[in-house]
C-alpha cells in the first residue's frame, strides 16, 4: 500500500544512517516530503539524494540535535522548502556502554544530551509548525533498554527511559491540540550504533556478542531497520489516529521473556 503519507511533510533526525535512513526512504515512498537531519551533513544529503533519485522529495540538512540554533535553522529550512511539518521522528541517538561504577561522566552527559535533550529541542522547534496546521504526529525513538534492565548499558538505559517518560508527558500536553506523541522501543538491530555495544557484550568479540544477544529473542532473529521503519510509518500515518502516549515495542518478543 503506497501513499499513506501523501501530502505530508516529515522531519527525521539521524536520517543519515540505520533506522533513520530506512525510515526516511520509506516515508518518501509513502508520499511524504522528508527533511533529513543528521549531525553528519554529508550523510543527511546522501539519504536525501537517494530519495530524490528514486523520484521522491527530500532535503538533507546538517544539524546537531543538541544545538538549538542548528535545530531551529534546519526546521525553518524544511518549512520554507515543503511547508508545515506533520511528522517528526526523533530518531537521532547514540549508544553508551558501561555499568554505573565505571561509566564516564562525559559519556553519560553526551548520551543524555543526544537521546533525551535532542528529543526535547527538536520537538520544541517543530511543534509550532504542527499547531499551525492543527495536527501532527511525533515519534520518539526509545529502546527496549528503557523497559528492561540491560547489563553494562547504564547511561543508555537511563537516557532511553527519559525518552519514554517524556513521550507520555508530551502526549498529554499535546493531545488536546491535535498532536499525537508515541515512542518506539526497538529491540536489537545491527547498525553502526549497535556494533560497539555488541562487541562490549561479547567481551571484545562481535560474533559472540551477536550470539549472546540472539538468545534473548524468542522470534529467533535480530531486527532489521525495515522492521522499525514500518512501526514508525504506522505511528506517523492516520491509521494510528487514536494512538497517543504509547510505547510500541518492536522487539521480536525480547521484553516478554
Ligand atoms: N540499533 C539498535 O539496536 C537500536 C535499538 C533500540 C533503539 N535504537 C535507537 O534507534 C536510533 C537510531 O539508531 P541506529 O541504530 O539507526 O544508529 P545509527 O548509528 O545507524 O544512526 C544514528 C544516526 O544519528 C546521527 N546522530 C548522532 N548524533 C547526532 C546528533 N547529535 N544530532 C543529529 N544526528 C546525530 C548519526 O550521525 C547517525 O547517522 C537511536 O536513537 C538508537 O538509540 C537502536
CATH fold group of the largest domain: Rossmann fold
Global mean pLDDT: 97
CATH class categorisation of the largest domain: Alpha Beta
Q: Segments where pLDDT lies below 50 for 5+ residues?
A: none
CATH architecture label name of the largest domain: 3-Layer(aba) Sandwich
Shape: globular
> Number of folding domains?
2
The total count of helices amounts to: 8
Distance between the termini: 33 Å
Main beta sheet strand tally, sense and closure: 7 strands, parallel
List the helices and strands in order: EHEHEHEHEHEHHHE
Q: What small molecules are bound in this structure?
A: nicotinamide-adenine-dinucleotide
Portion of residues within helices: 40-55%
CATH homology superfamily of the largest domain: NAD(P)-binding Rossmann-like Domain
Q: Can you put this structure into words, describing what you see?
A:
The protein is α/β, with parallel strands linked by helices. It is built from 8 helices and 7 strands; from the N terminus they run E-H-E-H-E-H-E-H-E-H-E-H-H-H-E. Helix 3 runs parallel beside helix 4. The radius of gyration is 17 Å and the shape is globular. The two termini are 33 Å apart. The structure holds nicotinamide-adenine-dinucleotide (NAD). The site of nicotinamide-adenine-dinucleotide has 30 residues, from helix 1 and helix 4.
Top keywords for this entry?
Rossmann fold; 8 helices; 46% helix; binds nicotinamide-adenine-dinucleotide
Short synopsis of the structure:
46% of the residues lie in helices and 15% in strands. The chain has eight helices and seven strands; from the N terminus they run βαβαβαβαβαβαααβ.
